[in-house]
Structures are given as structure tokens and as C-alpha cells.
């Protein structure tokens, strides 16, 4: 009897070890291949902004500005567990996308100064070097700056001048989180987010 019980326990343990060895299958990604890098251009004057973006769609529903495929490209693939959430504070409004284990990807419109790239550039913390490395570039034909509000290789931000009076700030934050496609290039991830959102705003 004891032998039979021991055999049953051994069989159960073997089955459990086999299940552990195999493990659950990885969720199937929805993108056939990794997203291409964002197309950036030379630095542009902060004003006047050529071909400004209409922000009506952003103001009405900022969380609609990334499609399911785009969320997979910049947050997590597959995006089943990603939940967008509106973000409204006294100084900014917009949307953020993330899971508890993926980077926090957000886009915010400044409601108070600094509202433009020129005002942003002249902030005391910028002039002191606290936002370095600071790189002026362009995204979707709009003046942009890649900067670092928080220190560390997993943190990166992009400010884009979308009109003469407004800018959008895109952020890619999350120390210790895993990025499906931008693990070693968080600034690439935030630039791609900006490219997607700006393209969708232009489509109206």
C-alpha cells in the first residue's frame, strides 16, 4: 500500500515538473514584425510652427490617439492587458497607457506655462543641465526636443511644438519594466509614440 502511495506521489510530482518545464505558452504577438524607427529630421525653429496640428481630437479624447496595433508597437505586444487612462492635473491633460509590468507611455498637453518649446527651453532646470541630454530635432515636420526629465536609461521624453502656442510632451517611463520592442532604445519608443499620435491627429 505504501509503495502504491509513493508511486502515486512520484507520478504527480513528475507531471508537475513536466508542466513547469513546458510552462505556459508565450502570448501571441499581433504584429508580424517589430515597428520601424520613427522618422526624425533636422532641428526646426520653434516658431513659427509650419503645418500646425489641430488639437480638437486630442482635447476631446486623447486616449483614442493610439490604435490597438500602435499600442502593441510602443507599450506591449500583445496589448490585451494595456489600459489607457485619462490624466488631468492642474498643469496638464492627456492620456497614459501601461500595465503594471510595462513602461508607462503618456502624452500630455501643458495647460499652464511652459506651454511652448521656447518657454520650455528657458526653464531654470533646463538651463542648469537637469534635463540633459537635450537634443533638438523634428518629428512629422514639427519642431521637437528629446530630453530626460528623469535620470536613467529607461526614461525618455519628447516635447513637440504642435502650434505656435501649444506643445505636447510624450514620455516613456518605467524603471525595471520590460519593453517588447524598445528595451534598449527607450527614446526610440517615445519618438515612435509621438510619430503615431501626430499622424493620427493629422488624419482628424
Describe this structure in words.
The protein has helices spanning 2-22, 56-60, 68-74, 117-121, 124-127, 186-203; strands at residues 40-41, 83-88, 92-98, 104-110, 135-139, 142-147, 156-161, 167-173. With 204 residues, it is of the alpha+beta class. The chain has one domain: Protein Transport Mog1p, Chain A, CATH 3.40.1000. The chain has an eight-stranded antiparallel beta sheet, covered by helices on one side. A hairpin with a 5-residue loop joins strand 7 and strand 8 (167-173). It is globular and about 50 Å long. Mean pLDDT is 89; it is low at 1-21.
List the defining traits of the structure above.
Protein Transport Mog1p, Chain A; eight-stranded antiparallel sheet; 6 helices; 8 strands; 29% helix; disordered N terminus
Work out the helix count: 6
Mean pLDDT: 89
In spatial order, strands of the major sheet run 1-5-6-7-8-4-3-2
How many β-strand stretches? Answer: 8
Shape, principal axes of CA atoms: globular
Proportion in β-strands: 15-25%
Q: Which fold name corresponds to the CATH topology? A: Protein Transport Mog1p, Chain A
The gist of it:
The protein is of the alpha+beta class and 204 residues long.
Q: What's the SSE blueprint?
A:
Elements: H1 2-22, E1 40-41, H2 56-60, H3 68-74, E2 83-88, E3 92-98, E4 104-110, H4 117-121, H5 124-127, E5 135-139, E6 142-147, E7 156-161, E8 167-173, H6 186-203
Antiparallel strand pairs: 1-5, 2-3, 3-4, 4-8, 5-6, 6-7, 7-8
Amino acid at each position: 500500500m505504501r509503495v502504491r502511495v509513493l508511486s502515486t506521489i512520484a507520478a504527480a510530482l513528475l507531471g508537475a515538473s513536466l508542466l513547469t518545464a513546458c510552462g505556459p505558452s508565450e502570448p501571441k504577438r499581433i504584429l508580424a514584425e517589430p515597428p520601424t524607427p520613427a522618422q526624425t529630421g533636422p532641428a526646426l525653429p520653434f516658431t513659427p510652427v509650419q503645418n500646425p496640428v489641430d488639437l480638437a481630437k486630442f482635447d476631446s479624447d486623447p486616449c483614442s490617439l493610439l490604435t490597438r496595433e500602435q499600442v502593441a508597437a510602443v507599450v506591449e505586444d500583445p496589448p490585451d492587458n494595456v489600459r489607457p487612462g485619462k490624466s488631468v492635473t492642474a498643469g496638464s491633460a492627456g492620456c497614459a497607457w501601461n500595465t503594471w509590468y510595462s513602461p508607462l507611455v503618456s502624452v500630455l498637453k501643458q495647460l499652464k506655462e511652459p506651454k511652448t518649446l521656447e518657454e520650455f527651453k528657458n526653464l531654470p532646470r533646463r538651463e542648469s543641465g537637469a534635463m540633459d541630454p537635450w537634443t533638438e530635432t523634428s518629428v512629422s515636420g514639427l519642431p521637437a526636443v528629446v530630453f530626460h526629465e528623469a535620470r536613467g536609461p529607461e526614461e525618455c521624453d519628447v516635447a513637440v511644438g504642435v502650434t505656435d502656442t501649444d506643445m505636447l510632451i510624450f514620455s516613456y517611463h518605467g524603471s525595471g519594466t520590460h519593453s517588447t520592442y524598445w528595451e534598449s532604445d527607450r527614446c526610440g519608443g517615445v519618438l515612435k509614440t509621438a510619430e503615431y499620435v501626430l499622424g493620427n491627429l493629422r488624419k482628424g
